[in-house]
Write a structure and sequence with these properties.
- The structure is a single chain.
- The protein has helices spanning 4-30, 39-60, 63-73.
- It is elongated and about 40 Å long.
- With 76 residues, it is mainly alpha-helical.
- The longest helix has 27 residues, at 4-30.
- 79% of the residues lie in helices and 0% in strands.
Length: 76
């Protein structure tokens, strides 16, 4: 079982990974790679994002989706 400090670090790590995956997918859709990126790449990023969500949900429960939404809103 993780301590509170370890849980906080794990939550921060997962949120960072989620941000990174989302940004990679966004770049694949509209960034410099537009037209070059493959559907497989974007799909893989979004599937990994779902896996990270599940990991975060195991730690914080139903608050996970709100945390993800808040984090992704800061990217725009």
């Amino acid at each position: 079982m993780l301590t509170t400090k370890e849980q906080g670090s794990e939550v921060a790590r997962l949120l960072k990974q989620i941000s990174d995956e989302y940004e990679a997918a966004q770049r694949g859709l509209s960034g410099l790679a537009c037209g070059v990126s493959r559907h497989d790449f974007i799909t893989a990023r979004m599937e990994h994002l779902g896996q990270l969500h599940n990991q975060l949900q195991a730690i914080v429960g139903d608050a996970a989706i709100a945390m993800i939404a808040e984090r992704l809103n800061t990217l725009h």
